[in-house]
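Forgive a beginner's question, but might I ask you for the amino acids of a protein and the tokens describing how it folds?
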Amino acid sequence: MNFLEIINAVLLELNYSVVSDFSELTKPEHVRLKQVINRINKEVCSLSDNFYFRQRTKEIALDKDVIEYPLNIEGKITKVVSSSASYRFQPDYNLFFFDSIPEKSYSFYGENILISPSNDDIRIFYVCSKFVKDKNDELKENFENETDTSIIPEGFHDRIFINGAAMNFKQNPSHPKYVHWSKEYDKAVRTLSGNAKCDINQNTKINGGFRRL
């Protein structure tokens, strides 16, 4: 479900009029509903670093004469590997600038990654910190446009966003459907948490190649 589809589904659940065009979402209740949906998306995605849909990779072809590479990712790095070895994190980045570089190691300097000299092709595994995709599959902070989608698996969208947004929008436990929304939302989140996790420290090399997440 994209952002407009989620909004219309929630409006329908709340017995409000749906819209045919994203530009019609100008009323105060529309603005508030957008905020609620964004908050739910962040809260659910932030429940675990182990959600498989938060796992991302970046590949870098190393040059033995270069130690510093732009990183250009937003998230937490969990491991750096080549097809033959795992690279160890070195907390003291100064070693990379004084000819004391440990073999198969990496560190950080500003927004760049420092890697011991090698001709390896490496893969960086990281947990993303942005939870919305635009129409080009680029990650972003919030839902903003009609075609934006959540990184949460689509099979959970209706149960999480419709029930969660309706419950949080109304914020009224005496509402006839509040208990239903709360139960369905909690059940969906529990199911997601139980079925969408992977071990981010698992072995990532299979038959000399890479496991793809």
The chain has a mean pLDDT of 91. The first helix runs from residue 3 to 13.
